């Protein structure tokens, strides 16, 4: 999350749980990570970058992190989204205190690292940046949104296939409390909600609504065929119909308190989703992926999530008409 509330909550939680968020000046010199464990970051314009670095580079980092350390970072990152660009100078100073070298290009970065966290929240840059990493044969986690268009989303996964490097992308809301232990084979429907604040450079839900949509697909799984969107100034509701007849809804709020959660309806009763679990569960999955090359989220599911959001936008443009995911995917493949 990029909200100050969740950033403060994450820092507090990880400090209390012993993940070792070291204060500035407590790292007299970080031991060099073992071969294969050097992490590079692209994009110091999001709080995710500093949060992940503080956990990975802590003097008493958890053994679950397998010795991975951030050793270098390329700061850019958005150059024209003000809420992002203004963070870069401060975040550069934060990671430098954690023994992270600042480099001038992605090519310089790739010479110094084994794996990459593509963290800039400007999805317009992701296709070009991810392709550089994939060409170099390095595993890459792409933070949300994977791209700023459905067309670019497809092209990123095409590049992954071309260069034979599996990649992983997800929102941290995939690991919201309540998901663990859920028997997804018994899910008959779900309602989820999250903030859906807008950024003019990105399609509607791609910027922030992706969090709640990812939660919906985490519990419902793939197979959504069509969506209908109900729009007003403060809230948008998207109703998705799955191929097996199940219905899942996402409610995105523009104003008010930023909450994340939902309800899952199962054959055994209802399960409440929430509260937000912080970044740690996602980071552990990223490390497993770096170590094994096995992706925890299939490319097809990530593509369907972004097709769902694009279909929701199209439904809005059509005044709430039903729009199939197949139709927006066909259009994106031609773009």
UniProtKB/TrEMBL annotation:
Gene3D superfamilies with a match to the protein in the record: NAD(P)-binding Rossmann-like Domain
Name under which the protein is recorded: Gfo/Idh/MocA-like oxidoreductase N-terminal domain-containing protein
Source organism (scientific name): Rhabdobacter roseus
GO MF, one annotated term: nucleotide binding
PANTHER family cross-referenced by the UniProt entry: BCDNA.GH03377, HYPOTHETICAL OXIDOREDUCTASE
Keywords, sorted A to Z: Signal
Segment forming the signal sequence: 1-31
Positions of the Gfo/Idh/MocA-like oxidoreductase N-terminal domain: 38-168
Pfam families linked to this entry: GFO_IDH_MocA
PROSITE patterns assigned to the protein according to its UniProt record, in alphabetical order: TAT
Highest taxon of source: Bacteria
